[in-house]
Amino acid sequence: MRFDDVLDAEGAAIRGAIEGTVMGTAVTIPSFYILHRQWPYFRSLPLQVKALAAIIVILPTTAIRAEHRMIDYERSHWDGADKYAVERRAHEERLRWGSLSVKDKFADWTARHQLSFVVGSWALAIAISGAIIMRDPHLPVRHKVVQARVWAQGLTLGVIIATGALTHSQRAKAAQMRKHGDNSWEDVLDDQQRKVRAVT
């Protein structure tokens, strides 16, 4: 990949991150406004907890949108025979996906969307742990925030380890498939032969 392509790819990711941040903020601000007006308990929460809740919404949308923009950028640069080969493989991948069990689908999706899965798991973990810890009337709020963060970090570490194991398993399967050879060049030749026959 050329240096210019790398810069373009980074630009696509940055645009996606900005879009995700704007989207998350667009959801967070009206939601917080409504909660502040309608729910006395929310009004009583300290600013740190409200900021944490905003991060839980904004950070995942930022990461996920950046990832989607990168994928879109890569797809937009497919052309010619490469595009045909990729589309054919995508069709085969859809067929393979349809034949997988629910467990295998989860493992496959997680391996291909690691960032989204880890960030989403962190947000979910901190939301659940925060909701549980905030019910304790004997702890000061600052201690509750610290405990929620520690629990979320611990759970996220477990998710990262599990994701790494799934990724290793997927790579092992991919390596096993590569032993049988990469036949994508055959798809390219078939496409070129069809074009020649169409011209003649």
Describe the overall structure:
The chain is mainly alpha-helical and 200 residues long. The chain folds into 2 domains: 77 residues; 120 residues, no CATH class. Helices cover 88% and strands 0% of the residues. It contains 8 helices and no strands. Helix 1 packs antiparallel against helix 3. The model has no long low-confidence stretch (mean pLDDT 76). One of its GO terms (cellular component) is mitochondrion. Its main location: mitochondrion. Keywords: Membrane, Transmembrane, Transmembrane helix.
List the helices and strands and how they pair.
Layout: H1 3-38, H2 40-44, H3 47-76, H4 80-99, H5 102-112, H6 114-133, H7 141-178, H8 184-199
Brief summary:
The chain is mainly α. The protein is built from 8 helices and no strands.
**Helix percent band:** over 70%
Number of helices: 8
Strand content: under 5%
**Residue runs with pLDDT of under 50 for 5 or more positions:** none
Structural class, please?
A: mainly alpha
- Termini distance? 35 Å
Which features would summarize this protein structure in a list?
transmembrane helix, 88% helix, 2 domains, mainly alpha, 200 residues, 8 helices, single chain, membrane, elongated
